[in-house]
Structures are given as C-alpha cells and as structure tokens.
C-alpha cells in the first residue's frame, strides 16, 4: 500500500521536515484562532465594549476545555506516531479506533460539565454585572456545540501523528471564512448580537469536524477509522493516558490558574478587561509558531524514538527550538512596533487601545522564553515523558504565578501591568527549570 498522505520523519533533512510539518499546522492554527478572534472583532466594532469584554471574559473558560482535549490528543499523537515510526500498522489502527471511542465519551462529558458549570465559573472570575449575562449566553451556546471543536482537534491530531498537516489546514481555511461570513450575517443582518457570533463559531466548527471525520473514514491508508472496528483497547488506552493525561491536567490547571489572573484583571473594570482580552488574542497569535514547532517536535521525536534513532530525535529538538525562536522573534518585533494598529482591529475605544498596547509592549518579548518551554515539553512528550513537563509547568505557571500575584497586588503595586506581568514571570522560571531537567535527565538517558 502506498501511503501518499503520511510523512515519514525518520530520514531526510531535519529543518526541512520540521518546517514542512509545522508551517501548514501554524497556518491552520491561525485559521482556528480566527474563530474567537473574529468574534471579538465583530462584537467590539458592531455591538459594543461590554460585549467585547464579555467575549474576553469567556476566553479562559473556553480554553479549559480546549487545552484539556489538546493535552489528551498529544497522548494519541505520540502513541500513534510511535507505532507509525515502528511500522506497526496493526497496533496503529487499534490506537486510532481506541482514540476515537474515548473522544466520543469525552465529548458528552465536556458538554454536560461545562454547561452546568457556566455560572459558577463566571462568578468565580468575579465577572462584572454589566457583562455577566452576555458572557453567560456566549458560553451556553459555545459549550452546547463544543463537540465539533473536540472532534476536529482529535481527528487532526491523528492526521498529525502520521505527518499529514495539509488537509486539516484546508478544512480550517474553508470554515474560518465561513465563520467570518456568518458572524457578519448574524450580527449585521439578523441583529443577534453576541449570540450570533457564538452560533457562527459552533456551526463552522461542526463543518470542520465532519470534514475531518470524513477523511478518516474514507481513507484507505493505515489510519483509517471505522465505526465497525470501534474499540477501547485497555493497553493502548493506558499508553495514551500515560502521555496525554498529565499534559491534559497541566493544561487545565494552567488555564484554571489563568482564571485567577482574569479575576485580578476584572477588578479594574470593563475597559481594562477588554484591553487584556485583546492582548490575549494577539498573545495567542504569537504563540502559534511556538505551538506548531512544539507539535512538530512531538511528532518528530515520537517517530524517531519509535525507529530507535535517539540522536536524530535530539537533533530535531534543537532545530525546533532555533526555528521557533527565529519565527517568534520576527513576529514579536512587528507586533510591538504596530501594537496600536493591531488593537484598532478590535475596537475604536481609546481607553481599551491604551490598555492593550501597554500589555503588548511590556509582555510580548518575554514570549521567547516560552519558545524553549513549549518545544522542550513537546520533545519530552514525544519520548513518552509527560510527568516531568507537567510538574515543571504547574510549578511555574500556577504556583509561582499565583504567589507573585498575591504578593504584588497586596503588598507592592496593584496595577494592570503588574498583574499582566505574571505571565512572563512564569515563562522565565519555567525556561530555567525545563532546560535543566532536559539536560540533567533526558540528555544523560539518551546517550
């Protein structure tokens, strides 16, 4: 059988393979991020500052579900990638079937849980009364249709494991354009307000999910999915959870910790909330090449470890870090220079723009530390080690960040910028710990 849509990363130029894998993934992530970003742009320009603040207030909550599922998909990607590199096609097929069975179960759980926890989470973040109802409405619609997003992410994770990042990109490009059209239609023509952008996002996400599932079900390749073969192989499930569960827990707890950060920001009112939300959208765009190179590193390392090529796996890790730093550095310089113009995409409110620009110019360059964090974590997960990165990131992004925020806001200086700087504090500490862990433990072990 000729596997025309897979990519074997166990031979060939390392930088070329990483870029061929990461660039379509990065472009696809840009389109996926456009869902929520376009929601913010449309409500900020055509509904109002309170609606923009409401969408911004929901970001940390929606991220909890997305991050958990992405963490779980990392486990599937690593295990499927390992068996792909080892040429064990029978086990790979069972891993795909097991992954999809678990996905259907988790879709039901996430829908019920987050619909039930909607009001609790908004109250926990101390969401102001003037934006609470709109934020609650957005979350109810978003989580009623969250299965579309989860099915797409897991399906694309399976495709990534075998090196196919192009078709998920095509689906996201199409549905992102559809989302923009529906946002404008529901808000400008049907005057549905914040509910309109939520419905547009859910509809577009289901289209991308159906397209991805159709690829998995109709392909004749080794990653074919069939409801007839659907199973929960306990041994494979244990492998997937061994890698994916720590990554998922780390992502969820980090996102939950960021809800605390959001609660500190909410203290300063709707204008600062909206500015912080706009900064976070831009921050997430800067994270895209970092996340893409981290995913490339995970797949590259998983395939090469499966093929027993540890030296090549290490070389791929170094190349991933260098490429991530170069791409992220260039984007950061551009955004810092044109910060004001970037904020005006979201709103014309001068107070929101001033607030958002200050967050960008203080925080964004520190994202370079996160390049090292994310790529090394991806490489370690590719080797099957999720516990080490989880422990380091939880300590840096959750515990120390909360300690910093508590001390700064109560005893030193409670300002929006000092609260926002909690992100770089976590990134820098994590970088030192992650590099030390990699060189002291895994570097020695791979010799």
Structure description:
The chain is mainly α and 447 residues long. It contains 17 helices and no strands. The chain has helices spanning 14-46, 49-85, 89-116, 118-124, 129-144, 146-161, 166-189, 193-218, 234-266, 270-306, 310-337, 339-344, 350-363, 367-382, 387-412, 416-420, 422-445. The longest helix has 37 residues, at 49-85. The mean pLDDT is 82.
Break the fold down into its secondary structure elements and pairings.
Elements: H1 14-46, H2 49-85, H3 89-116, H4 118-124, H5 129-144, H6 146-161, H7 166-189, H8 193-218, H9 234-266, H10 270-306, H11 310-337, H12 339-344, H13 350-363, H14 367-382, H15 387-412, H16 416-420, H17 422-445
Helix pairs in contact: 1-2, 1-7, 1-8, 1-10, 1-11, 2-3, 2-5, 2-6, 2-9, 2-10, 3-5, 3-6, 4-5, 5-8, 6-8, 7-8, 9-15, 10-11, 10-13, 10-14, 11-14, 14-17, 15-17
Radius of gyration: 21 Å
Biggest sheet, open or closed, and with what strands and sense?
none
Number of helices: 17
The counted number of beta strands is 0
Unreliable segments (pLDDT under 50, ≥5 consecutive)? none
Based on secondary structure, the structural category is mainly alpha
Q: What level of helicity do the residues show?
A: over 70%
């Amino acid at each position: 059988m000729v596997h025309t849509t897979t990519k074997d990363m166990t031979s060939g130029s390392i930088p070329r393979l990483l870029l061929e894998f990461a660039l379509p993934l990065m472009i696809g992530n840009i389109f996926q991020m456009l869902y929520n970003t376009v929601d913010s742009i449309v409500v900020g320009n055509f509904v109002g500052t309170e609606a923009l603040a409401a969408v911004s207030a929901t970001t940390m909550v929606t991220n909890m579900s997305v991050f958990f599922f992405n963490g779980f998909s990392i486990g599937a990607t690593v295990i499927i990638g390992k068996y792909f590199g080892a040429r064990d096609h029978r086990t790979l097929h069972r891993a795909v079937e097991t992954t999809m069975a678990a996905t259907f179960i988790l879709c039901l759980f996430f829908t019920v849980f987050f619909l039930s926890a909607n009001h609790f989470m908004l109250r926990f973040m101390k969401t102001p009364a003037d934006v609470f109802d709109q934020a609650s409405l957005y979350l109810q619609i978003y989580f009623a249709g969250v299965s579309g997003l989860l099915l797409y992410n897991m399906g694309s994770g399976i495709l990534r494991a075998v090196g196919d990042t192009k078709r998920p990109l095509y689906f996201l490009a199409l549905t992102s354009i559809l989302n923009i059209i529906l946002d404008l239609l529901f808000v400008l023509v049907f005057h549905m307000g914040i509910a309109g952008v939520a419905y547009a996002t859910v509809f577009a996400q289901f289209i991308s999910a159906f397209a991805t599932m159709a690829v998995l079900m109709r392909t004749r390749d080794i990653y074919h999915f069939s409801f007839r073969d659907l199973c929960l192989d306990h041994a494979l499930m244990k492998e997937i959870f061994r890698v994916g569960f720590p990554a998922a827990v780390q992502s969820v707890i980090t996102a939950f910790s960021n809800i605390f950060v959001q609660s500190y920001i909410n203290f300063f009112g709707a204008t600062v909330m909206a500015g912080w939300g706009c900064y976070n959208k831009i921050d997430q765009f800067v994270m895209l090449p970092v996340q893409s190179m981290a995913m490339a590193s995970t797949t590259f390392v998983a395939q090469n470890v499966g093929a027993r090529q540890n030296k090549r796996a290490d070389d791929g890790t170094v190349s991933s870090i260098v490429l991530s730093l170069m791409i992220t550095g260039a984007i950061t310089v551009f955004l810092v220079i044109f910060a004001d113009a970037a904020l005006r995409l979201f709103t014309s409110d001068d107070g929101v723009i001033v607030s958002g620009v200050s967050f960008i110019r203080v925080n964004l360059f520190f994202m370079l530390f996160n390049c090292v964090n994310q790529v090394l974590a991806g490489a370690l997960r590719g080797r099957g080690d999720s516990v080490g990165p989880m422990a380091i990131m939880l300590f840096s992004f959750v515990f120390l960040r909360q300690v910093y925020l508590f001390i700064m806001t109560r005893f030193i200086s409670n300002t929006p910028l000092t609260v926002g700087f909690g992100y770089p504090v976590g990134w820098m500490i994590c970088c030192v710990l992650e590099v030390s862990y990699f060189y002291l433990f895994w570097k020695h072990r791979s010799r």
